[in-house]
Design brief:
Layout: H1 10-16, H2 20-23, E1 32-36, H3 44-56, E2 62-66, H4 77-93
Parallel strand pairs: 1-2
Length: 109
């Protein structure tokens, strides 16, 4: 790795940045990957590469792919937000609710 004073251009800097998949083996704790399968900002292959490296490293993780959704999950945004809150409640607070369904405003649940 180059010392900061030897970084002269953008490509030198970019070559120092590790990819998410190269860092996957260092992750610890509960991990949730989410991605829209037609995301045109971050290609879904990026999340699949991270998942591949997590599996190779023997790491447990959860993954949710939102079908037909782009980067912000569109009409699934409310579902995503509630799913994240439940995930945090379970893994950070130890609050495991009996209800496995996610209640949405327009679903009548």
């Amino acid at each position: 790795m180059l010392p900061p004073r030897q970084i002269k251009n953008h490509s030198d800097f970019l070559s120092l940045i590790k990819t998410n998949q190269s860092l996957a083996k260092n992750l610890k704790g509960h991990l949730l990957l989410t991605h829209g399968n037609i995301d045109n900002i971050v290609h879904p292959t990026n999340s699949l590469r991270v998942a591949d490296e997590l599996i190779k490293a023997g790491k447990r993780f959860d993954m949710m792919i939102f079908p037909g959704k782009r980067h912000g999950y569109g009409s699934f945004r409310s579902y995503y937000e509630k799913m994240m809150w439940y995930y945090f409640a379970e893994h950070l607070l130890g609050d495991y609710r009996d209800n496995v369904d996610i209640s949405l405003p327009d679903s009548g649940k």
